Amino acid sequence: MSGTISSTLQTGHVGLNVTDLARSTAFYRRVLGLELVAEGTDPEHRYAFLGRDGRPVLTLWQQSEGAFATAAPGLHHLSFQVDSLDEVRAAEALLRELGATFAYDGVVPHGEGAASGGIFFTDPDGIRLEIYTPAGVDETGAEAPTASAPTCGFF
């Protein structure tokens, strides 16, 4: 298997720089239902590992200032898949309660006529996020925000 990566390759966890660890930890735990797996409380090296069943999914590092720069090279957005449209709508209701900022009003398809789609919003630091379902959005009658491009690419 010279020159290639194993076929077992998969995403391990995603690490994000945040400005307020406590605020971001509370946000991601509530919205994504993640548990605190590990944390660092040294004032110079604060972090939180959030995950499921003891396995980190998202790591938060308090080592930045300002807001997420959408025009800079790097992370575009994080996308989280759920099984049903009802789960997307429940996440939307929770995010509205929390005062999250949405890119579009309500659940929208990934493209015109697409069965998949979801909600597009930002975390407390302005990092772009998506919660979507692979099917059922086409039955809502919602229109894609941009007919000529994927919804998740231009928000």
The biggest sheet, with number of strands, parallel, antiparallel or mixed sense and barrel status, is: 4 strands, mixed
Envelope shape: globular
- What topology, given as strand order, has the largest sheet? 1-4-3-2
Intertermini distance: 39 Å
Topology pattern, helix = H, strand = E? EHEEEEHEEE
Mean pLDDT: 94
Helix content: 10-25%
Q: In DSSP terms, counting alpha (H) and pi (I) runs of 4 or more, how many helices?
A: 2
Overall SS class:
alpha/beta
Count of beta strands: 8
Oligomerization state = single chain
Our Rg estimate from Cα atoms comes to 17 Å
Strand percentage lies at 25-35%
Question: Could you list the spans in which at least 5 consecutive residues all have pLDDT below 50?
Answer: none
Protein name: VOC family protein
Keywords: Metal-binding
InterPro entries: Fosfomycin_Res_Enzymes, Glyas_Bleomycin-R_OHBP_Dase, Glyas_Fos-R_dOase_dom, Glyoxalase_1_CS, VOC_core
Pfam families: Glyoxalase
What's the short version?
The protein has two helices and eight strands. The protein is of the alpha/beta class. This is VOC family protein.
Strand and helix layout:
Blueprint: E1 14-18, H1 21-32, E2 35-40, E3 47-52, E4 55-62, E5 78-81, H2 85-97, E6 108-109, E7 117-122, E8 128-133
Parallel strand pairs: 1-4, 5-8
Antiparallel strand pairs: 2-3, 3-4, 6-7, 7-8
